[in-house]
Batch of 2 targets.
Target 1
Amino acid sequence: MTGVQVVVLGAGVVGLSTAVCIAESLPVCSVTLLAEKFSPDTTSDGAAGIAPFPDIPLERQRRWFKDSFDHLLAIAQSQHSPDAGVILSSGWQIFKEVPATKKPYWSDLVIGFRVMTDRELKRFPDHKFGQAFTTVKCECSSYLPWLEERFRKAGGRMEQRRVSSLQELGDGFDLVVNCSGLGSKTLVGDAGVYPVRGQVLQVEAPWLTHFIRDGDGKTYIYPGVHSVTIGGTRQEGDWRLHVDEGDSTSILERCGRLEPSLKKAKVLGEWVGLRPSRRNPRVERERVLLPGRTGMPVVHNYGHGGWGVTIAWGTALDALGLVRQCLKEMPGAKL
């Protein structure tokens, strides 16, 4: 076997991360990325990029977070930072009630995590507790095209095409990596996948330099390279992709309470995306019976919800490990 033909389905942040990991780490593989949409039309593009999953061991979640954080931190501290849209960002996460866990599982993985002082909390009179830390802000409108370029440099091929079933891929490929997000609902019949609708606004407020995030995850202000992202909504099971003016009004009002100077900000744009959610991300492999074949190895990596940017590189490395296992079982494949 001269080369293993691998197809990665989905070009959001999870699919692109996985495709890059495979193409750069396994020269024996010829990797094709198939997607119906490429940046800037994918869901990850609007993700602001900052709850543990109930059934996944905490150590595995920590590894996903750490691997992703370290990967993005290295970019933020390199010459690639402006092109990739990855920057360091400091700020506050605030809570209306003191949370049961004052130090989340990622507290020692971000930079300079500490509990906010009473003096700092004074500006947020509706909130009783807060955490201050430095994290990495990833702007997918820059990061996804940067990953695409990295994938091409590693010899990867990209093709825009809709895939309705895995059966379509049986002839041309030896291994399928499924990063199709919400598409997995129909593509592999996963009834556990559902959308969580998110709406955000981009505003012009260059005086803002610190992020503010309400602990409920619904209200946040993230300064970026060219604009400030404010949000948001978390509407489960809602497939609407059009901008809801009521949501925009609510976002401006909620964020204005946290940061009054936003009343002076100019709205540059509004954006809606559907987060591909699941009780837990699915990162595992299986063999799928296809006509005329004993079984096609399929590696799944989807269902990250609003945590796509935060854990994408970590789950991509897990998926790479699963691809390696599949290759070991293929006759003639040399790693």
Target 2
Amino acid sequence: MVPAPPNCVLGGKLHKELGESCCTGLDLAGRFLFAILTLMTLIANLVFIEEVVYIYRKIHSSKRSILIWINAAAPVIATTSCIGMWIPRSTMFTDFTASVFFAIVIHKFLMMMIKECGGQKLFLKRFENGHFKISTGPCCCCCLCLPGVRITRRSLFWLKLGTFQFALFRPVFMFLSTVLWTNGNYSLSNLSPKGAAIWISCFIAILTIIALWPVGIMFQQVRVLLNCKKIIPKFALYQFILILNHLQTAIINILAVQRIIPCAPPLSSPARGAYISHQILIMEMFLVTLISRVVYRRRYDELDPPACITEEAGVKKQTPILNVAVREDGL
């Protein structure tokens, strides 16, 4: 690692001492940028509120909660990024909030695909003779020879468990990171085996891959069936948020830790990296919020029930007619 120049060390100290006040020395261009980004965050939240009102008025109650969670991903990330931009010392807490929220959204997206198929029972009826294609990313995209897994209640349970574990354990690891950070034992710049950051990051990466795999498997199974409900654009938006919030942020943090992103007193290199990441995320999540409104703010026709359900319903309707006919003959 390149040693930090004296002004970067001084910038890091000033960043810790000044904290919230590091944004007070902005010039006119900086204040204009902050105002624009804050306005974008405000508009994103207003669009989301309008979307929530529409969902409560037009969408069936069984889908409301899931759709609200998914649509809230971009506005929540934009809001936490805006807070982190104005108050740099809150970065650890804002990142904690955004990461935990999106971990829940990953599970909700899987549940949404099942709900759009009519729920778990109808999903199993539709694909009772089918197989899950498990040779998908991010785990087994190169293992094309893997056999399919039969679609049963048990295999569906394992898919849901794969995303649920991430929603459960991600907050635990992020809370542990925050506690260690407040005690001075957690730093992304210390990636030695003796440090806590490298181990926590590895565990979170493993949990993330395990959680993304079931979503990819389910999408491959239902993308043709749910094409009428625009599942491909919805999945693309989900992937964009995932890449921008995780991969992009990780790349910027690595560049900042290696001091490829130079310091700018009173901000050290890591602080400036987080500062840049927050500003970029606000603009990106603003655009994602607007696109999500176009994709989700419409009522799609429900899928036709499976053939077996239609036949059962037809038999039930015909049975009373036969009984009446018998009684008439008896009279």
